[in-house]
Write a structure and sequence with these properties.
Layout: E1 4-10, H1 15-26, E2 29-36, E3 50-52, H2 57-70, E4 75-79, H3 81-94, H4 101-107, H5 110-119, E5 127-131, E6 147-151, E7 161-163, H6 166-180, H7 183-186, E8 195-200, E9 205-214, E10 217-225, E11 239-242, H8 248-265, E12 270-279, E13 282-289, E14 302-305, E15 308-312, H9 313-321, E16 330-331, E17 335-341, E18 347-353, H10 355-359, E19 364-369, E20 376-377, E21 388-394, H11 397-410, E22 412-416
Parallel strand pairs: 1-2, 1-4, 2-3
Antiparallel strand pairs: 5-8, 6-7, 6-8, 9-10, 9-12, 11-17, 12-13, 14-15, 14-16, 17-21, 18-20, 18-22, 19-21
Length: 426
């Protein structure tokens, strides 16, 4: 591949951006970062990133365009939902092939996604969009029970709560309203943080799909099974494993449904990550994001192609951004999976013992604890992180899942309870 320049838009530089950096070096690509930060600070992370603010498309585009005028970008990629919207804005403005802005904006608005998929005739749960008022009157929903409350723009199941009756729905709405009123969420300056979707609960098994759209044509890269039931009241994802163990017919139905959703939303060129549920009524596509799989989970995917291999997802995305047809690449035949280590309870993280014992489990590739000592931990639905990640590879998916569960059981996690300070009065 000829040396070219890619703009990678991300919230901050972290382990996923480091994976792109390593892939760019292997693929002879110059990587330039644009991250959400104060423009008055002089390169605080020493990554020479272009400073942008995701709530300010105009100002961010101005900063990126100024760089582009003297050092043009050949492609734009994004890590995360909000960066994906800015990436689409940049591509449209600079004439770079990518996902359209309209598609990216639809994908980060759950109600807009539902309306779009329903208009395309795809299976869609009964839903409605509600706005938080001044608190004088409780919100009411006409959606039947059981139902699920979802913030319009949060990701990773954050703020997603099942309700089985009116009292549970009222409690869920109140809890989500408190979450959305937090300072760190309001700092995003996203107008959707005053609204939620209430939709009918969709029973069935849940799956994740990793793919790319190449000039309007969808290519499936991997289908992940989620072996743990996700029935609520909260929806913390834990294990992803690929290839799927579902019958070929079910896999084809999932691929067809995601392809139809990609077309309905208008994605054009770049990575997509989808989530769906399957039951007797069909495949319900819950979301399609204009970005790759998040966090460290991409480590589960390795590919082979004309250039050899195995190489990671990030390298495939860089090559595809420059025009390499995705059909020339295939995922490794070995099964692989990841456990996103859940946070068992709120508190202050003090550390994890027996990590080496977990790594010693047959078929375990690595265990990486990403939580930091003395970090305040918070589980779902309010939390937005995991304790870490466990990775496994084996000849079959069942062996991968068994290894992940065994390694997890060996870990000893220490979390001190939070001490609430009592208020004092004169």
């Amino acid at each position: 591949m000829m040396a070219r320049r890619v703009l990678l838009i991300a919230t901050t530089t972290g382990y996923q951006t480091r994976a792109f950096s390593a892939a760019a070096e292997r693929a002879a690509v110059e990587l330039v970062f644009a991250t959400d930060r104060c423009q008055q600070l002089s390169d605080p992370w020493r990554d020479r990133a272009i400073p942008v603010r995701f709530h300010d498309d105009v100002g961010s585009l101005r900063a990126i365009r100024a760089f582009h005028e003297h050092s043009p970008f050949d492609a734009v990629l994004a890590v995360g939902d909000r960066p994906a919207v800015l990436a689409a804005v940049v591509c449209d403005a600079l004439g770079i092939v990518g996902h359209p802005t309209t598609a990216a904006r639809l994908s980060v608005h759950k109600a807009a996604t539902r309306r779009c998929l329903a208009a395309a005739g795809l299976p869609t749960p009964e839903f409605e969009e509600l706005a938080f008022g001044d608190g004088a009157e409780p919100m009411e929903s006409s959606v039947s029970f059981p139902c699920v409350v979802k913030p319009l723009a949060l990701s990773g199941s954050r703020g997603v709560i099942r309700a089985d009756d009116p009292n549970q729905l009222a409690a869920a709405l109140e809890r989500v309203q408190r979450l959305l009123s937090r300072r760190e969420i309001q700092a995003n300056r996203d107008g959707t943080h005053t609204r939620v979707v209430v939709e009918a609960f969709v029973p069935g098994r849940e799956y994740a799909v990793e793919g790319v759209v190449h000039h309007g044509c969808f290519y499936l890269l991997a289908l992940f099974d989620k072996p743990d039931p996700l029935d609520g009241p909260f929806f913390e994802e834990s294990i992803y494993v690929t290839p799927s163990q579902e019958p070929r017919r079910v896999q084809q139905e999932i691929e067809h449904a995601v392809r139809a959703a990609v077309t309905a939303l208008g994605f054009h060129h770049g990575p997509v990550h989808a989530e769906c549920r399957v039951n007797d009524q069909g495949v319900f596509v819950l979301e399609v994001a204009a970005r790759p799989i998040g966090g460290l989970c991409a480590r589960t995917l390795r590919f082979f192609g004309p250039e050899g291999g195995p190489f990671p997802l990030e390298e495939l995305l860089l090559r595809q951004a420059f025009g390499a047809p995705p059909g020339r690449y295939c995922r490794e035949t070995e099964a692989s999976g990841v456990m996103m280590i859940p946070i068992p309870r709120p508190g202050i993280y003090r550390g994890t013992d027996r990590v080496d014992a977990a790594r010693a489990v047959p078929n375990i590739v690595d265990v990486e604890m990403t939580a930091k000592r003395d970090q305040r931990l918070e589980p779902l639905p309010e939390g937005a992180s995991y304790l870490g990640f466990i990775f496994a590879r084996a000849l079959g998916p069942a062996a991968v899942v068994a290894a992940l569960r065994k390694a997890h059981r060996r870990l000893q996690v220490y979390i001190d309870p939070l001490i609430e300070m009592a208020s004092t009065s004169d």
